[in-house]
Design goal:
Rossmann fold, alpha/beta, 7-stranded parallel beta sheet, single chain, 2 domains, 6-stranded parallel beta sheet, elongated, 13 strands
């Protein structure tokens, strides 16, 4: 069987795609080709994971700066032409779209040629590309309930989002993880992550509450990833030199970071949420307002409604974020309730379920 996996742009699309590909490989599929967008994250991460990738010169449609769309029709036509050449050369039996505008051209070509397509939608509110491709898709693997509002109910399969294998059991890593970050294993730990690049508003919220952080109990410490682009700025602040604060530009071992955490403060991207659910870490979510269709807020609201996480809106983070996180840390009953509800929502076998759906669809083409 020959399979194309397409999409990307952000880690939330790229890493689940790689997890799916690795699982397909474990199940005996040897011919897997990725198709992404030139200059985007997938063009670096996919080859590092050991897979071939073809790049398309495609960009998303700007909803606010319309003048930047002047070349969009030409980029789209060029990408469709390149996608057709890639498609004809590789000859896939099934094409998988993981979201992001890069998946549009190759899945459209597949659907025009009646080659079966499978979509994987990570968010509780689907992206534009997956909405457009859904009508002719054979199966749509989703991470949240209630997606029949957007997709044909007969095509939906609730699988959850695939996450990295190394997060499936992190409890045994605690001692090594505390040593890795030079943290005290006898202290409770609040971890702050703004994504790989950091998040300005989350960083500002922590910095604005420096007095509160100085006054917290001696048995509490912070692991704070500020992001490479903010590290120089924030490392100059007094808070960076507090004994109970460990500030880093980047966290290279997220399994270690999760292992030391008692409470996590983070954005509400689909991949991050899926990881938190799998490991059952009580969290305060701060959805980014700067994403398409405000999907991070919808992701966070889905967990809040299930009593599985707390949410602080980005606009009020400076005033409320630290107090909410520290309040949660002191509430043992709430911590345990969130932990149980997160684990109840987790889909630990998502990688296998999605891979099996892809193989099933692919096999149907041979019959």
């Amino acid at each position: 069987m020959r399979i194309i996996i397409s999409g990307g742009g952000t880690g939330g699309h790229v890493y689940p795609a790689i997890a799916i590909a690795n699982t397909l490989k474990e199940k005996g599929v040897e011919d897997i080709l990725f198709v992404g967008a030139n200059g985007k994250l997938e063009m670096e991460k996919v080859p590092k994971a050991g897979f071939e990738i073809e790049g398309l010169d495609i960009r998303g449609f700007h909803r606010t700066r319309m003048w930047r769309n002047i070349l969009f029709p030409f980029k789209l036509l060029g990408s469709l032409w390149k996608a057709k050449k890639v498609f004809d050369k590789f000859g896939p039996d099934v094409v998988v779209g993981v979201g992001g505008y890069a998946s549009g051209p190759i899945l459209k070509i597949a659907q025009l040629k009646n080659i079966p397509t499978v979509l994987q939608e990570q968010n509780s509110y689907p992206g534009v590309t997956n909405k457009l491709l859904a009508k002719k898709a054979k199966k749509i693997c989703v991470a949240y309930k209630g997606m029949e509002k957007y997709f044909d109910v007969d095509k939906i399969r609730l699988t959850g989002n695939p996450v990295r294998k190394d997060l499936e059991n992190i409890s045994h890593l605690r001692a090594e993880a505390f040593a890795h970050f030079d943290l005290d294993p006898d202290k409770r730990t609040v971890s702050i992550f703004g994504g790989s690049l950091g998040a300005r508003s989350v960083n500002a919220a922590i910095a604005c509450q420096a007095e509160m952080i100085r006054s917290i109990k001696n048995d509490v410490q912070l692991l704070w990833q500020v992001g490479n682009i903010y590290h120089k700025e924030y490392s100059q602040l007094d808070i960076a030199r507090e004994n109970n604060v460990r500030m880093l530009p980047f966290v290279d071992r997220m399994d270690f970071a999760y292992a030391v955490s008692d409470v996590v403060i983070c954005r509400a991207g689909a991949l991050t949420i899926s990881e938190l659910l799998l490991i059952g870490k009580p969290s305060v979510l701060v959805p980014s307002p700067n994403v398409a269709e405000d999907h991070q807020t919808k992701n966070a609201e889905a967990l809040v409604e299930a009593s599985a996480a707390l949410m602080v809106k980005d606009a009020v983070a400076k005033r409320k974020l630290v107090a909410v996180a520290l309040g949660l840390l002191e509430d043992k009953s709430m911590l345990e309730s969130l932990r149980k509800n997160m684990l109840r929502l987790a889909r630990p076998d998502a990688r296998n379920e999605i891979a099996e759906e892809i193989l099933k669809i692919g096999r149907s083409g041979f019959s």
